[in-house]
Amino acid sequence: MDMQKRRPIVLTGLQPTSGIHLGNYLGALQSWANIQDETDCLFFIADMHAITIPQDPGELRKNIIDCVAAYLACGLDSKKSHIFVQSQIAGHAELAWILSCIAPLGQLERMTQFKDKSSRQAGEFIGAGLLYYPVLMAADILLYNTHLVPVGEDQRQHLELTRDLAEKFNGIHGPLFNIPEPLIQGNCTRVMSLQNPTSKMSKSDHNSLATIFLSDDDDQIMKKFRSAVTDSGTEIRASDEKPGVQNLLNILSGVSGMSISELEVNHAGMGYGKFKTIVAEAVIECVRPIRERLETLKKDSQYLHSIVETGRAEAQARANATFASVCDLVGLARRPSI
Ligand code: AMP
Ligand code: TRP
Predict the structure, then answer these.
(1) Nearest ligand 1 atom, CA 154
(2) pTM above 0.70, yes or no
(3) Looking at residue 103, what DSSP letter applies?
(4) pLDDT per residue over 8-42, tens digit each?
(5) Residue minimizing CA distance to atom 14 of ligand 1
(6) Does an H or E element contain 288, and which?
(7) Can 62 be counted among the known catalytic residues?
């Protein structure tokens, strides 16, 4: 067996939406880039998850390819990892169907994300896909015999369901799936809004000063940090009573790699105005090369398509192998092509 295959298999992905922001980078993409050398990574674009809410087809297709550009710009390396698009591998939807037949309906109805999203749409149309979403996520993971799944805290419950489904399948049909572990890491897993530091930084914030996008230029980043909300005190200290300052320290820690306590010591006695400028400068230095790579990459759609085509071939081979075993164990007809 070659080395590549013996390393733990890591799989994760993002939904292709426009506006990748500093929270996505510090909470997800940065740490994904950092594990590529020690693990066998599969990074995919969850376009089938994205259609659980209505999407404009042209926008969606553009967002998929922009998401590939963002992956590369943030340091994912197609020579070390496999980058592909979920909907190009039919096994995701096929395995999801098989898993849905053993998924307890009650457990799906109790998923926090389903309850949140469906209560926000109360009285409106709610597609069954929203309920089924975590089963598709389980299929994404189990199709590649994944060991580790880097996700944000909000996805932990979906990972629990994945583990339950893998154990249940193995119990009924015989041992096939690895039981995957969530990988929740990094010192900056929750980047908060610059305008309301008690809520998460998000692309859909109505206040345009709240969110730093990876496409923001240096002046926009400086302006947003200079107007960041802090408290009326002067102390640079991370505490729950000072969510604005805590968020700035967290962000600085995320971009610099320094610990919060080191940063507290280094900036003791400094006024908030000066501190905001320092954080802005550090973020500018971090975002600038990403933005520049993003701009260059977006101009070369042929290259971006070639990346996902290479990724597709590898993902397809792995998915076929797992799916053939699934069909055998469940008793479904074998595919002539696999
Ligand atoms: P979303 O854009 O909400 O679909 O998030 C995709 C992934 O990015 C999540 O699973 C999180 O790991 C990460 N993420 C999103 N927003 C933040 C944030 N404000 N702070 C830290 N991580 C985030
Ligand atoms: N649900 C994840 C999110 O919103 C995206 C996702 C879909 C995912 N399938 C996955 C993440 C499989 C990890 C593994 O962030």
Answers:
(1) 10
(2) yes
(3) S
(4) 999 999 999 888 999 999 989 999 999 999 999 99
(5) 24
(6) helix 272-298
(7) no
